[in-house]
Amino acid sequence: MKPRTVLLILSLLILVLFASSAQAASAEDSSPWNQWKLLWRVINTVALIALLGYFLKKPLVSFLSERKAQIARDLEEAKEQLDRAERIIEEYKEKIAGMEKELEGMRTELKKSADAETEKVVANADRMALTMVEAAKVAAEQELRKAKIALKNEAVEMAVQLAESLIREKINDADRKRIAEDYLVKVGGMK
Question: CA distances (Å), 81 to each of 73, 76, 89, 150, in order?
Fold first, then answer.
């Protein structure tokens, strides 16, 4: 509403109120003096309202227009803040969606990496197992060779001991003499 319309409505309302009180007063006391008093009060009130309207119109209009402008600015600012908040919410929603995608990608990469590491570990374990089996085979073969050599040496030793004991039992002094002579003949023929 315009300030002028508000003042006019306010003036009419006050006039009606005074007129109704004047009627009530005239019904009680019908002297002309009371009617003039009432009329004078109404005129004074209307004049006061007119003067107040005249002098307060510009400040009141100015205040109301400033207040209206302030409210409009506040509403505009609130709209901007709401828009900003909605944009921020959308950005965060996008970031969260992006983070979910990124997390899914990281999970996939971690799973691939874990699978690759598992394959490497299994391959290393297989290689180590093969190496250990080969090393065990080599060690077993070496031990077998050592055992064979030790067995041969022992067999040779036993054969030598057995041959020596047989030779001692069966060879007498005459046989010993003949062997020594044969040996000397062979050694002498080599010269």
Answer: 12, 9, 12, 98
Nearest to 40 by CA among 25, 55, 28, 52: 25
Residue type, 86: E
DSSP label of 1: -
What token pair was written down for 18? 């005074």
pLDDT digit string, tens, across residues 121-166: 888 888 888 888 888 888 888 988 888 898 888 888 888 888 888 7
The span from the first CA to the last CA of the chain, in angstroms, equals 155
Amino acid code (one letter) for 19: A
Cα diameter, the chain: 198
The contacts of residue 21 (CB under 8 Å, 6+ apart) are 38
